[in-house]
Input
Amino acid sequence: MATITVTDTRFLQTTEAGELKLKITVGFMQASGSYVVLISSDDSRKEISPDQQGVYTIPLEHQSIISCITVVQDINLSTNNTSVRHNFTDANPDTFTYEREVEHHNDRVIYDIQYILL
Output
């Protein structure tokens, strides 16, 4: 079983004060798990638990980083494609999609994406 890592860093302009909603959607009916952490400008870290499956409420702290790590395992016998979509409310841009095809069934992709809040 092989593991591939996809990394990216994006800037995210928020439009509202208070909190931000993040919805993580995994495509192609693959198995997954996500871990979301808010890294403040003073380098403190706060794990964000989901409100419901795939939906996170993140307190807004400008000049902080949202770290989203999603591990996707290819369990769908009809495709080796994987994807992760991050959809934010009150942010610009508001949607980011990442896709990666694995070579073999049961291979994994780690999507390690960082968002810098402006």
